[in-house]
Every structure is written in C-alpha cells, then in structure tokens.
Write a structure and sequence with these properties.
By secondary structure, the chain is an alpha/beta fold. The protein has a domain at about 15-300: 3-Layer(aba) Sandwich (Rossmann fold). The protein is about 35% helix and about 15% strand. The protein contains twelve helices and 14 strands. It has helices at about 1-45, 50-55, 70-90, 95-100, 110, 145-155, 180-195, 210-225, 285-310, 335-340, 370-380, 480-495, and strands spanning about 120-125, 130-135, 160-165, 205-210, 235-240, 270, 285, 320-325, 350-355, 385-390, 400-405, 410, 445, 450. Helix 7 (about 180-195) packs across helix 8 and helix 8 runs parallel beside helix 9.
C-alpha cells in the first residue's frame, strides 16, 4: 500500500506539472496573439478621431442606475445627448473628417437624415392602442433600424417603444465601455414600462434586430423563469445574433495591451477604424463590441439550455424570425440549430430569404447558399418553415413556400420579383424598406435632394476612397419588405382575435 500511495502521489505531481506547463503555454499563446494584434492596430489602423477617444459621462450604467424607471432612463438619455452636443461643439470645425461626418449638423449625411432624430429611444403612440410592443436595435446601430417594423405594428393599432441601447447613438467611443449587463438592465427597465401600459387582454410583443434579437430572447427566457417579469405574447426577430463564429472568443484577449497608458496603444481597442459617414450606424468597430455580443450569445445559450432541461421552453411564446440564408455578420445556421431546433409548435415560424436562384446567376453563386434550406426541409421540424425564393430558375418572380411541422406544404406568389442586379439579401438589408430615405436602394430614395446611402454606387480603384468600395455594393434595404409588413398584419389580426387572459 505505501508503494501504491507513492505512485499515486507521483502521478498527481506529474499531472500538476503538466497542467502548469499547459497553462504557461496557453498564456504565452494568448500573449502572442495579443501582441500580434497590437502591432497590427498600431501600424495599420488609421489615426483616431475625437469621436474614438473622447468619452461621455451621462450614459446609463446598470451598476449606477439600476433604480431608474423608463422615465428616468429617458431623462438620463436627454442629459447624455446634451453632453454630446456640448462635446461636438469643442471639435475643430475645419477638420476634413469632421466636415463630412455624422457629427457635423451641416454635413450631407446629417441633412439626409434630417438631423438623425432616431438615434434616441422613441415611442409611437395613438389613442386607444390595441397592444404594446418593445423593439430593440442591433450592435453599432440605433433605434432607426427598428423604425419600419415599429411603423408596421403601429399601423395595426400597437403603441410601440423602441429602446436605444447603452453605448449607441452618440459616439463610437462609448462602445468601448458598454456591457451586456447594461443592455439587459435597460431592456428590463423598458419592458417593465411597456408591459405595464398594456391593459387587460392586450398583447405585449417584444422584438429585436441582430443583437437586439439576442436581448429580446434573453428577456423572454428570463420571464419564463421569473414570474415578476411580464412574459411577451409574441417574439419578433430580424437577423438575430444567436451564434457567432469561434474566433469571436479572441475578443477577450486581443486588446490586452490597451491597458498600458500610452496614447498610441489607444488604437488597440479597435478592430476597425473607419469614417463615420452613416447617420444611424457606427462604421468603426471596437474590440469590446465583439466581446459583449459574444457574452450575450453565451448567456443566451445557457438560458436556452436551462429552459430546455427544466421544461420551461414548452411555454415559450410564439417566435417569428426573418433571416437571410446568406448573412456575413452573424451567419444563418445558428438561428436554426440553436433556437428553432429546440422549439416545438406551429406558432413558431422561421422565414428564410433564399438567394436569387435565376439560372443566369448559377455560375457565380456559391453552392453552399442553399444548403441550410435543403437540410431543414429534409429534417424533422417542430415549427413552421417559410422559404422565399424564385418561382423557377427561369423566373425572377418570387414564390413563398410554407411547410407546417407535419410536412404539409402550401405556396403562393406574392407578386414581387428580384430587382435587376440583386443576388441576395443579407444581414443589414432585412429591416429597411426598399425606398427608405437613408438606406433605400431604389433610385430616387433620399431626402432634401440627397440620394440615400443605399443607392450610392461608385466605381473605381481600391484605395481611391476613404471607404471600401465593397461597402457600397452591399444591399442596405429589403426589396421584399412588403412580405414582412403583410406578415405583421396577419400576426396582429390573429392575436387580437384570440381570447387572452389578464396578464
């Protein structure tokens, strides 16, 4: 027995030494990755502007302002935007980057957006609303990205509140300090207010775009667990961020050397530094933004797993999602494999916008684009699947096929066609109508004599502009927005006709 004890002790010491070596090796790899990114950021990224370095102090914080109601949140937001205006007034008004930026009230993009009033939370009211809805925008975005969906619900009798998430709508620098806890706390404050405005029998919806979809789902799962939270009657999602690529985890380490108080290392906080010409979306992207959305998706995965294990997922309100099969921002498979694979019931619907399947494009399309649709059609589903695609390879006209969980299928042609030159939808396109004043692709879209950003199409050599030419060919609005609008009409009619108990 003493010999066995000595062997066990030796094995334990060997195991500890091996673990220590692996820990050292992992630490060295992380440092090497962080050091490599630091060299890249310092040497390659463009110079920082004031909107990348200056901070505002009136932003909402979950730690400092957890006792606020939504009225208090809006009051703090008012102070924040007053601070923003005062800060902008101190900048060099002759600086070329400032003159063309969203921060110059006289710039072309500011005039295009009429001063960009939808960078802030807003509410669409009406006398005697039939329901209440809370909508949440995405990462680097603003409440403007939910304006069309809000308008669709409002036209059907809903009072709609669109929340500005902390870190958004003001300066890109504020994204370096925002946190997932701040987002979730703000959502709860807004949801408490919106749900309280719903009278007996009125439906309460929650919805979100991209990261806003993550937060809407997180709130809904929390409400299944916490009886204090009002459970939504329906969840509406547009391109939700459900699952990110594994490389997103690197955001936890790559900005390590930004803690060193040296001005040149301030650039290490950023993955991308770009001109801020978009009035409602930041073009620069900090490492912290990746870190926080990655954290939000991880929390969502854990909440989904808990709800599945304890059976609460069966009480999930109907979830309707609109998703492009090609999505270079968050991918398209996560919403099917992480979310809908665990949902059961015809009330849940996944709407997939396929790529343009016209035969003339077959030679240049990636064959993987249709793999998700084929896999879902062949597999077992507990939800309704809707596929928006060409009526045939010879046609640009749309066909909408709907597949019930039991396999029953219906189809109809909505009278819409692929516009010339458009090969697919995508992440940033789905929530905006094709004639949107800021992002519409239809020629003639715009305001005040200024063409919409979505209709800009410039050709030239790479490097000729301060922005990537490729960013001007990415579709910024949805030619098939009418399908989403009509589905909203049908869903609202269904819910208003259904008997509902007092919340």
């Amino acid at each position: 027995m003493p010999g066995l004890a000595r062997l066990t002790s030796a094995a334990a010491r060997h195991g500890w030494r091996l673990a220590l070596k692996l820990a050292w090796l992992l630490g060295l790899v992380c440092l090497a990755i962080a050091f490599g990114f630091t060299l890249y950021a310092v040497a390659v990224l463009p110079p920082l502007a004031p909107w990348h370095t200056e901070r505002l102090h009136e932003e909402f914080s979950a730690l400092r302002h957890s006792d606020l109601d939504f009225a208090g949140y809006l009051q703090r937001e008012e102070k924040l935007f007053a601070e923003l205006r005062a800060t902008i007034a101190t900048w060099d008004s002759k600086d070329e980057a400032w003159l063309a930026s969203r921060f110059n009230p006289e710039s072309m993009v500011s005039r295009l957006a009429d001063g960009a009033p939808y960078n802030r939370s807003f509410r669409l009211t009406l006398p005697g609303p039939k329901g209440q809805a809370l909508l949440i925008h995405g990462l680097t975005d603003s409440p403007y990205s939910m304006r069309a969906l809000a308008g669709s619900l409002h036209a059907r009798g809903f009072e709609v509140t669109v929340l500005r998430l902390p870190g958004h709508g003001t300066l890109p620098s504020m994204m370096t300090e925002m946190s997932t806890r701040d987002w979730n706390a703000a959502v709860r404050i807004a949801a408490r207010d919106v749900a309280a405005r719903a009278t007996a029998g009125q439906p309460f919806y929650i919805g979100g775009y991209s990261t806003g979809g993550t937060l809407a789902l997180q709130y809904t799962l929390d409400a299944l667990e916490d009886p204090v939270l009002r459970r939504p009657d329906r969840v509406l999602l547009v391109s939700p961020a459900i699952e990110l690529t594994p490389v997103a985890a690197l955001a936890s380490i790559i900005d390590f050397f930004s803690i060193v108080p040296v001005p040149v290392l301030e650039k290490v906080r950023w993955q991308e530094i770009a001109p801020e010409y978009d009035p409602y979306k930041f073009n620069s992207f900090p490492v912290n933004a990746s870190r926080q959305v990655n954290r939000a998706t991880k929390w969502l995965h854990a909440a989904l797993l808990r709800a599945k294990e304890n059976g609460r997922l069966t009480r999930m309100p109907p979830v309707v999602t609109w998703q492009s099969v090609v999505d270079s921002t968050v991918g398209a498979t996560g919403v099917a494999s992480r979310l809908y694979a665990n949902l059961d019931g015809a009330g849940h619907r996944l709407v997939l916008f396929d790529v343009n399947r016209h035969k003339e494009l077959a030679g240049v399309q990636r064959p993987q684009a249709g793999a998700l649709i084929e896999r879902l059609l062949q597999g077992k589903r507990g939800y309704e699947l809707e596929v928006v695609s060409n009526a045939s390879p010879e046609s640009l006209e749309l066909n909408v096929r709907r597949f019930a969980p039991d396999g029953a299928a219906t189809a109809h042609e909505p009278g819409l066609s692929w516009p010339p030159g458009i090969v697919s939808l995508g992440h940033v396109a789905l929530p905006f109508p094709p004639d949107d004043a800021v992002y519409g692709f239809v020629q003639g879209s715009g305001r005040n004599g200024i063409p919409s950003i979505g209709s800009w199409l410039l050709r030239g050599e790479s490097g000729a502009l301060t922005i990537a030419l490729g960013s001007l060919t990415r579709l910024r609005s949805n030619p098939f927005w009418a399908l989403i609008d009509s589905e909203i009409e049908a869903l609202v009619a269904l819910d208003l006709a259904a008997p509902r108990q007092k919340p």
